[in-house]
Task: structure prediction
Amino acid sequence: MTKKDIKLAGLLILILFIYAICGIFLNTLDVDIKLRWLFWNEFLAFLPLVLSIPASFFLYLRKGWIIIGMIIGIGWLLFLPNACYMITDLIHLDSSQLIGWNGEYIPNLKEWVALIYLAAGIFLAVVAGLASTKIIAKSIGLKRGNIWNVIYNFTISCLVGYGVYIGRFLRFNTWDILEPLNLLRSLYHDFDRFALMFSILIAGFYFIAYMIYERVEETSK
Result:
């Protein structure tokens, strides 16, 4: 982890704060934004970024601190799917009034503002997740182009993909890990072809997004 990573994390958190203020302001203008669930999902999506910083710090110290770093790192991994989960929140647009019965787009400014606001929240969440994934990668010595970095990306992406499926379709939360037997029982009985293909779909998205994020970060040095 570098000072640049800390500054980026701070900037993203600041933008999230501004994003929340804008949402509250838009609600006063009768823009239909479901702030309660959106803010909660954004909070969960940013937790991996917040956890990645102390995890990276303690992993960097090594020696007796590495255990603490690993524990926080596990927390980071458990919450990471929340960052990508927000992509599925696009389903909430099914009730929007943007297209008329004749297929023409409706010039309803408030509906379009709500759409852009939701899209911005999803973008923020995904970027926060990618940033946290890169911070952890740096803390364990992984660099772009290294085979172990590819394996790391692949593994994390697969876990994120399945995690999003668990959250969206099985309706489990991260803290349900505290009841492992009930969780494992449900995962065993509910795993089918759709679960596999959906998980692969999200995993593929995250894998490619992380590759792009790494490339952009490298060129910005």
In short: The chain has a mean pLDDT of 89. Residues 165 and 199 are 6 Å apart (CA to CA). The radius of gyration is 19 Å.
